[in-house]
Write a structure and sequence with these properties.
Number of strands: 6
Number of helices: 2
Structural class: alpha+beta
CATH topology: Thiol Ester Dehydrase, Chain A
Distance between the termini: 28 Å
CATH architecture: Roll
Strand content: 25-35%
Length: 153
């Protein structure tokens, strides 16, 4: 299989608009999940130059809210691969317009499957961890994936 086209992360910036919030003025979890899922799909496509669909999402950890008017910065990168799957580690941070200091609000693993025009799984380039941090993320993603696969069993 070919080498990955890019191992660089994808970063998305989104403003939290009033329609994205609940009655407390905080960002809906489902809206954040959508942004994070989009970033995982883009990182996977950038990595393999293929179309991807989401196959599973690890239990996300919502650490703190984002508020109306905040900027949400979502960073996604491929940290794991199997034959047809990429595992992306996705981190969401909130930034205020007055400080622009990132504060983690949510993180988790998104698993994406490359598909052909008939929606059949297709092979992807393989990711090779290049340092200790990448090795750790690979192992974490593999544990999450193995756990999900054993639950399907």
């Amino acid at each position: 299989m070919d080498e990955p086209y890019s191992t660089e992360p994808v970063v998305l910036l989104n403003e939290v608009f009033p329609q994205d919030t609940n009655s407390r003025g905080t960002l809906f979890g489902g809206r954040l999940l959508s942004i994070m899922d989009t970033a995982a799909g883009m990182a996977s496509s950038k990595f393999a130059h293929k179309q991807f669909v989401t196959i599973s999402i690890d239990s996300l950890k919502f650490m703190r809210p984002a508020y109306k008017g905040d900027i949400v910065e979502v960073t996604s990168r491929v940290v794991f691969t199997s034959r047809t799957t990429t595992g992306c580690y996705v981190v969401a941070r909130r930034l205020t317009r007055s400080e622009w200091e990132p504060e983690d609000i949510c993180a988790g693993f998104f698993f994406m499957v490359a598909v052909d025009s008939d929606m059949r799984p297709t092979p992807v380039p393989q990711h090779t961890p290049a340092n200790e941090e990448e090795e750790l993320l690979w192992k974490q993603a593999q544990r999450v994936r193995d756990s999900m696969l054993s639950e399907d069993g």
